[in-house]
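FAQ: What does the model actually see?

It sees only this:
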Amino acid sequence: MADHPSTDRQIHFVTGKLAEPALRKAIDQLAGEAGFTATVQVLNITVAALMTTDWIARRLEVPPGTDQVLIPGLCRGDLAAVEAVAGVPVERGPADCRRLAEWFGRKRQDLADYGQHDIEIIAEINHANRLSLAELLACAARLRAAGADVIDVGCTPGEPWAGVGDAVAALVAEGHRVSIDSFEPVEVLAATRAGASLVLSVDSRNVEAAPDYGCEVVVVPDVPATLAGFDKTIERLLAHGVPLRLDPVLEPIGFGLAASLGRYLNVRQQYPDAEMMMGIGNLTELTDVDSAGLNTLLLGFCQETGIRSVLTTEVIYWAASSVKECDLARRLVHHAVTQQTLPKHVEPGLVTLRSGKPQVHGEEALDQLAAAIRDPNFRLFAERGAIHLVGRGLHLSSRDPFDLFDQLAEHGRDDVDASHAFYLGYEMAKAVTALTLGKDYRQDQALDWGHLTEPEIGCGPSAAAARVPAPQTTKPRQDATS
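And it is asked to produce this:
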């Protein structure tokens, strides 16, 4: 949504009966601040999202002096049909009128430059020697698309890889920046000569070979718990003019996590201007928890500490989207630290499990909806701990979809054929999931899984639902809800 100038203008809002109170409240709170006056046209439909642009165009009445028309964000159809009648620009508003202030850019003015970051993501391909070249290139392309800046070619101890140079050369030819993850000088030399620009890692065991690599290296201690050998390795590399970044090594929970975080702070204090890296996979891969929260917390620590690169991987299934999570997290933590603001209500993509504040219409509104419906189709809602099935003169509720079907039969609704029953079952399964996780459920729309959200399979009202015969009417079909 483009920024809207704060100039006096008259906006004509189009809505349905159910959303009218919330819309008027939002307008009252916003109009003066955002610099507009408003008129509201409530069309004869309960759920605003069920409108189509053609249907609106046949009913639109634009007051004189109107500069812009705003229709509900979920309305389907070409805006040109409405603009032809309105004679002024027409736009879709937010999907939820309660987010009107954000749509006007009033609440999130601090996000004008959001998205900047300065933490580099190094994505490791573990056991790269066991992959075919085609598999390696495909994996690298996927990681880069997810946000990786550097592809780390992970070698396997005890499995010498004669083809590492060819693999690195192929990655470089595809435009990737490449690091090599090996302590074996032979493998590292082959990789750096083929174009690898970073070596993970160097300690006292292989420091003598490091000047021959001709590129930057990551320094790790011989013994992470005591930082033994760390300073000496750094001194030897600096004496030979080898560019480096420091990694005191993050330890898993139960094996010194707190102490290892303290070492990062101590190393930063001892080497205030040094580049540093953190291998965050040591925590995300080795902890039974979804990785998004851990990645965000660790990148927040890195942002505050001046650690400008992280090494991650996506081996274990609960960390299978770590690169994307790190890409989103580095933007969030950069914003929080540089703007000195809480990282809250900023990055919805990282809230996957319980995202989306549930809408609650209330018993009275759903009863009114049932009384107003004239077609044979059903509307589904998930709120107050139950699935609500609303149809013509019918409002049933239960947390159990099977119970709802039994209730339908008891009320004599024998017009639900197999296809429509399948559609209702599919939607109710989504509703149960939403209730279980406290998500917002909207019929015929995908549940919000943050950055993992996939488009709704049906791409709108179900074809099965559409086959249910409807009475002759000039109103649009009402197979979905906002």
